[in-house]
Amino acid sequence: MLKPGDTAPDFTLRASDKSQIKLSDFRGKNVVLLFYPLAFTGVCTKELSLMRDSLAEYEALDAQLLAISVDSIYALDKWKHELGFNFPMLSDFNKTVSKKYDALYKTFVYEMKGVSKRSAFVIDKDGVIRYAEVLENAGELPNFEAVRNVLKTLNN
User: Fold this and answer.
1) How far is 81 from 44, CA to CA, in rounded Å?
2) Which H/E stretch holds residue 97?
3) Per-residue pLDDT for the chain (156 aa), expressed as one digit of tens each?
4) What is the CATH number assigned to the segment(s) 19-138?
5) Active site (catalytic) residues
């Protein structure tokens, strides 16, 4: 399991607009990396709407928000436009990044295999993990107060 102090595994994923996004492209900026189970579901909608509505606060902390699920780029694009999400939505359809971050359920609800666990990582400007939270219960939200507090310490 990844923990604070570990180097964040780099990755390249397709965003909902079909562009490729690499984690290493954000070196020099803090990153809040969120994994979530599935688009269009209740708790995921609540979580990402909260992030949408508080994006300015994260930007003021010099943080780039990246959201990852195993949904297709097409589902993510539809969801992003319907709810006005204002940050990159990345598809880990092949589950490679969720595995690297130890954020993958073996079995989720309704016998679905390989769904991302709700997780939050703060990665500093040098690519080092400074906060890691992987939740077993998909009904819970990450501790966003702790995420913001870590970001504040990185900007001092």
Assistant:
1) 15
2) helix 96-100
3) 899 999 999 999 999 999 999 999 999 999 999 999 999 989 999 999 999 999 999 999 999 999 999 999 999 999 999 999 999 999 999 999 999 999 998 877 667 678 899 999 999 999 999 999 999 888 999 999 999 999 999 987
4) 3.40.30.10
5) 44
